[in-house]
Design a protein that fits this description.
- The structure is a single chain.
- By secondary structure, the protein is an alpha+beta fold.
- The protein folds into two domains: about 325 residues, Transferase(Phosphotransferase) domain 1 (Transferase(Phosphotransferase), domain 1), CATH 1.10.510; about 80 residues, DNA polymerase, domain 1 (Orthogonal Bundle), CATH 1.10.150.
- Helices cover about 40% and strands about 10% of the residues.
- Strands 1, 2, 3, 4, 5 and 6 form a six-stranded antiparallel sheet that branches.
- Strand 2 and strand 3 form a beta hairpin.
- The longest helix has 20 residues.
- It binds adenosine-5'-triphosphate (ATP) and magnesium ion (MG).
- Adenosine-5'-triphosphate binds next to strand 2, strand 3, strand 4, strand 6 and helix 8.
Length: about 400
């Protein structure tokens, strides 16, 4: 097997070093309670792994039946789509689920909109007009581009946009300017992504989302600015050697953020060190979930050489069968992210993207550095189980990392 640690090139992402600056937001650190009884964690696992209990599946079935699409009930349930998640569904998701017939897609999307409108009506003032009803269905903060002051040089660039440091109402912000063309349907998706980010914001290990600018010339996502940058910037690009305790702290927080996303029925789809931001006190913050849909409209030459996704972080079932992303494909990517934390390198750096696909499909994984603590090595191997069902859930990953953190901290 070729060495996977040598000759690391970072061209694939072309990121630039982060800059330092003030951060005006409070940081949060988890207080783990060592004497919490073990069985309460077991409850967590069960809770986490059984999203679609019958009480959630039944309303989806009934709704599909009412539209005359009872035949799709199993498909929706298998994809963990309950009534809460329905508003986030777009024609692209239906495509991915194998529902490609335009007329069926149109009727399903219309059904979703009607359902959403009927739910929203309960929450709005009676004297609001129908026009404001449509607007009130999607909640996010619209930020006027005129209010933002941008630093001229970017701090980084990713698969579909360039990130600048800026100032908004006296606070440091990160502005991700999208290099995409969005037609009106896709703009609607953009707004839905913003609403999704707003909804998922309130967890201490999620990077803080401020709002979006939907002015066509200045499409951008605005988040809190994290002066230390991403875990990739620190551990891979700058090759910073941190004490294990801090590495585990970042990883543990990342796991808890993804645990939250999964509990909210959102699959991240792009877990990697570059998408874990690091706070002043070495807390980890999950970023860039919900961007996968926007990435599909990328027109920029800044995009990755292939637009087929973050191959090096992808689970074999995704590379092999073009299956849907799942909670357990996130677990695989998390294992690769842990490897980046430990190896300080780009995964499979000596292999081309095509070679990586073959390598992983053939049952090979990354070689774990000898310096890796056994707890992490075992966790990585568990995340890389070929059978998705046997990979750990994020409740389990979080628990294992938390326990290890306590051990290192004591
Ligand atoms: N909120 C932020 N605070 C500070 N730096 C940030 C922030 N968001 C992004 N960055 C910097 O910008 C870089 C590029 O981010 P971006 O999300 O565009 O691309 P990426 O994370 O490398 O790839 P991906 O397209 O998979 O997200 C990051 O690596 C990080 O250095
Ligand atoms: Mg990112």
């Amino acid at each position: 097997m070729k060495s996977l640690e040598s000759d690391v090139s970072y061209d694939e992402y072309g990121s630039l070093p982060g800059t330092s600056g003030a951060s005006g937001f409070a940081q949060f650190d988890y207080e783990f309670e060592p004497d919490q009884p073990e069985d309460s964690f077991e409850e967590l696992y069960e809770f986490t792994d059984a999203f679609m209990d019958p009480s959630q599946a039944e309303p989806v079935k009934l709704w599909l039946e009412s539209l005359g699409f009872a035949q799709y009930a199993d498909l929706f349930i298998a994809n963990q789509i309950n009534l809460d998640f329905l508003p986030c569904i777009t024609p692209l998701d239906l495509d991915e689920m194998g529902i490609t017939e335009p007329d069926i897609q149109r009727r399903l999307i219309l059904g979703i909109k009607q359902l959403e409108a009927s739910k929203t009506r309960n929450f709005i003032d009676h004297d609001q007009s129908d026009a404001s009803l449509t607007h009130s269905m999607i909640h996010y903060r619209e930020i006027s581009y005129k209010e933002i002051q941008l630093n001229p040089s970017p701090i980084g660039r990713g698969a579909f946009g360039i990130v600048f440091k800026g100032l908004w109402r006296g606070q440091a912000i990160a502005v991700k300017k999208l290099q995409v063309f969005l037609d009106p349907t896709h703009l609607e998706d953009f707004r839905r992504e913003a609403a999704l980010m707003e909804r998922l914001n309130f967890h201490p290990a999620i990077s803080f989302f401020i709002g979006v600018c939907t002015e066509p010339e200045h499409l951008c996502f605005i988040t809190k600015y994290y002066p230390k940058g991403s875990a990739y910037d620190l551990l891979v690009k700058e090759n910073l050697v941190l004490e294990w305790k801090l590495v585990i702290k970042i990883a543990r927080d990342a796991a808890s953020g993804i645990f939250h996303l999964h509990r909210e029925r959102v699959i991240h789809c792009d877990i990697a060190a570059r998408n874990i931001l690091v706070g002043d006190d070495w807390s980890g913050y999950v970023s860039d979930f919900g961007m996968s849909r926007i990435k599909k409209y990328t027109t920029t030459p800044l995009a990755r050489p292939s637009r087929e996704g973050p191959i090096r972080w992808m689970a074999p079932e995704l590379l092999q069968n073009r299956q849907l992303y799942s909670f357990k494909s996130d677990s695989w990517s998390f294992g690769v992210m842990l490897w980046e934390f430990v190896a300080h390198a780009k995964p499979y750096s000596t292999l081309t993207r095509e070679e990586v696909v073959q390598h992983v499909i053939n049952g090979n994984t990354l070689s774990i550095p000898v310096s890796c603590p056994p707890v992490l090595a075992t966790l990585m191997k568990d995340c890389w189980n070929f059978d998705p069902e046997l990979r750990p859930s994020f409740a389990n990953i979080w628990k294992r990392l938390s326990e290890y953190y306590i051990k290192l901290d004591s």
